[in-house]
């Protein structure tokens, strides 16, 4: 193994492996170091996202939705199934197969693109040197013209609910329940809490989400957040806002949670399992030597500029370990940008147009600014909304919950943001992201021919509604 490289990447999650592949495609001699091991102690690529994050959670979300439909929705379609049961170990086995297939795929891509895949840990030393310790404990030093740090993030732990990986678990443990808990508590009603809570809710758990914030999904457009909360309540999710957990006590095979409610009163609730989902933090333990020259900001993220360059020359950082939303696709695009910048290209990431998705059912998705943000900016704007209840395809598919909201500049008609709760929201919002990338107006989308009947007609109608031209619902009268 040669110890000299053009690029050494530490971390093979969505930011790191994409950076490594793109760098190799551009003719740069590239190595990628990954510390993740499977249950057999074998090194695997993909980081959190592929192994215990995006991919396995979507596998369980899909399985639980199919079960929910068979259990509660088929009858309305005239389909009789008899008694439907869920085999949780079989569901987990399928999830594990999906993970193995996807992480194995990265290994294949590394091979095809001639990326050297190294399993073990990497630490950045001074002068763009990387200390590599393989999984057998052998130590060597790699020299690189450029180093890309892509070490990702880990769940935040809170002292009042220490994770024991049995009764109290984090987001990783919540993917491994071998049976459906009767009573499930979730601390945090953010993206991860909602996704995991909805998996087990569909499978039969009584789910209570305790959220410290006063507003539900505070990061989302609040009109869409309120609509989403209404839908989830109808599904049986018990979401309690302004509730701060103050203590937990494991008693045998259950846990008693103490929390302060919105009125300041102390409450107690007992659960069979408790998931702690209070956010994630950048992972930098053991990553940097004291003389590496790389600085962290006040929140523990690696400090980078707009181009993901650190304070140390030739050292870059991408993904969850740097500022910005902790989203796999954001990290991947940063990885591409850095690889291309190293190769002399002038690539940029448009941080204003990064879609955000919650993979519940229905999905919740957004791109661009919320109405609250636009209002705070003092920009004149128009809003168009359109319910899926008025979309033929949605009604035929029994997917009529939710709506599309389009926000456009009142003078230029340029699209400023789009927010959706409803069927295929993740794919529908991407249509608007493409339009925004090209500087489209609401009128441009309104003039585009959309197939009928499709879910995406709701996007067109919301764009038309922004200017008072919606066809399939009465338009709001404009204020004079």
TrEMBL record:
Residues 5-335 form the FAD/NAD(P)-binding domain. GO terms for cellular component: cytoplasm. Keywords: Cytoplasm, Disulfide bond, FAD, Flavoprotein, NAD, Nucleotide-binding, Oxidoreductase, Redox-active center. One of its GO terms (biological process) is 2-oxoglutarate metabolic process. Disulfide bonds join 49-54. The keyword Nucleotide-binding applies. Binds 1 FAD per subunit. The active site is at 452 (proton acceptor). Its EC number is 1.8.1.4. Residues 354-463 form the Pyridine nucleotide-disulphide oxidoreductase dimerisation domain. GO terms for molecular function: dihydrolipoyl dehydrogenase (NADH) activity; flavin adenine dinucleotide binding. FAD binds at residues 58, 122, 320, 326-329. Its cofactor is FAD. NAD(+) binds at residues 188-195, 211, 279. It is found in: Cytoplasm. PROSITE patterns: PYRIDINE_REDOX_1 (PS00076). InterPro entries: Class-I_Pyr_Nuc-Dis_Oxidored, FAD/NAD-bd_sf, FAD/NAD-binding_dom, FAD/NAD-linked_Rdtase_dimer_sf, Lipoamide_DH, Pyr_nuc-diS_OxRdtase, Pyr_nucl-diS_OxRdtase_dimer, Pyr_OxRdtase_I_AS. It catalyses: N(6)-[(R)-dihydrolipoyl]-L-lysyl-[protein] + NAD(+) = N(6)-[(R)-lipoyl]-L-lysyl-[protein] + NADH + H(+). SUPFAM superfamilies: FAD/NAD(P)-binding domain, FAD/NAD-linked reductases, dimerisation (C-terminal) domain. Belongs to the class-I pyridine nucleotide-disulfide oxidoreductase family. The active site is a redox-active disulfide bond. PANTHER family: DIHYDROLIPOYL DEHYDROGENASE, DISULFIDE OXIDOREDUCTASE. This is Dihydrolipoyl dehydrogenase.
């Amino acid at each position: 193994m040669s110890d000299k490289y053009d690029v050494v990447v530490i971390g093979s999650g969505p930011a790191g492996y994409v950076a490594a592949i793109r760098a190799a495609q551009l003719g740069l001699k590239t190595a990628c170091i990954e510390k993740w091991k499977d249950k057999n102690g074998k090194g695997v690529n993909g980081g959190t996202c592929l192994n215990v994050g995006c991919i396995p959670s979507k596998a369980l979300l899909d399985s639980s939705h199919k079960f929910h439909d068979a259990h509660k929705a088929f009858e309305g379609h005239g389909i009789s199934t008899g008694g439907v049961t869920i085999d949780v170990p079989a569901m987990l086995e399928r999830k594990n197969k999906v993970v193995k297939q996807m992480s194995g795929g990265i290994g294949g891509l590394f091979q095809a693109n001639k990326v050297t895949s190294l399993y073990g840990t990497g630490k950045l030393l001074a002068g763009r040197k990387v200390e590599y310790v393989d999984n057998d404990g052998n130590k060597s030093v790699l020299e690189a013209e450029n180093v890309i740090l892509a070490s990702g993030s880990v769940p935040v732990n809170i002292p009042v609910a220490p994770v024991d990986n049995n009764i109290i678990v984090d987001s990783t443990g919540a993917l491994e329940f071998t049976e459906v808990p009767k009573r499930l508590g979730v601390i945090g009603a953010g993206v991860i809490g909602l996704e995991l809570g909805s998996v087990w809710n569909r499978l039969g758990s009584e789910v209570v989400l305790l959220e410290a914030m006063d507003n539900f999904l505070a990061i989302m457009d609040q009109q869409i957040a309120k609509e989403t909360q209404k839908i989830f309540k109808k599904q049986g999710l018990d979401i309690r806002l302004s509730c701060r957990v103050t203590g937990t006590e494991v008693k045998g095979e259950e846990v008693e949670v103490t929390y302060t409610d919105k009125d300041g009163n102390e409450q107690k609730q007992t659960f069979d399992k408790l998931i702690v989902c209070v956010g994630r933090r950048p992972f930098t333990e053991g990553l940097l030597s004291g003389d590496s020259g790389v600085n962290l900001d006040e929140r523990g993220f690696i400090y980078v500029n707009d181009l993901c360059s650190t304070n140390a020359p030739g050292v870059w950082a991408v993904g969850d370990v740097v500022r910005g939303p902790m989203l796999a696709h954001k990290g991947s695009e940063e990885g591409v940008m850095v690889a291309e910048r190293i190769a002399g290209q002038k690539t940029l990431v448009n941080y204003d147009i990064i879609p955000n998705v919650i993979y519940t059912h229905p999905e919740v998705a957004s791109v661009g600014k919320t109405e609250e943000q636009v209002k705070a900016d003092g920009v004149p704007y128009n809003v168009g909304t359109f319910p899926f209840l008025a979309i033929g395809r949605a009604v035929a598919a029994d997917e009529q919950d939710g709506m599309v909201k389009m926000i456009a500049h009142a003078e230029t008609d340029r699209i400023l943001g789009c927010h959706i709760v409803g069927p295929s929201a993740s794919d529908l919002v991407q249509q608007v992201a493409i339009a925004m990338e090209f500087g489209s107006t609401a009128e441009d989308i309104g003039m585009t021919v959309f197939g009928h009947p499709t879910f995406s007609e709701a996007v067109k109608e919301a764009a038309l509604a922004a200017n008072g031209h919606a066809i399939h619902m009465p338009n709001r009268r404009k204020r004079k």
